[in-house]
Amino acid sequence: MKVKCPTCQNEVEWKPENKYKPFCSERCRLIDLGEWASESHVIKGESFNQQLTPQIDEFSEDLPPADEDFFKH
Ligand SMILES: [Zn+2]
Fold it and tell me: CA of 58: how far to CAs of 8, 20, 45, 48, 65, in Å?
């Protein structure tokens, strides 16, 4: 079974090993999270760092599971 990644529209095999499903990768998952948080498409490589404050740099590296409060600061 295959589904389309909501972020990049690539086909993704829907299998238990894919911990990022329905996304194709962790990157796409983070992008989607970023969109609901900021309601904009800011996470596109370098523009991500340019448009957001420096303290959000870690976001693209390793997103803590319960970091929603971060965006309310
Ligand atoms: Zn994707």
Answer: 22, 19, 14, 11, 13
Q: Where are the alpha helices (DSSP H) in 1-73?
A: 26-38, 46-51, 57-61
Ligand 1 center–CA 73 separation, angstroms = 29
How many domains does the chain divide into?
Answer: 1
Please give the residue range of the domain that contains residue 41.
2-72
52-63 confidence digits (pLDDT tens): 555 555 555 666
CA of 27 to the centre of ligand 1 (A): 7
Ligand 1 center to 2 CA (angstroms): 13
Look over the chain and give the mean of its residue pLDDT values, rounded to a whole number.
75
Q: What is the CATH number of the domain that holds 50?
A: 3.30.50
Q: How far away, in angstroms, is 19 Cα from ligand 1 center? A: 13
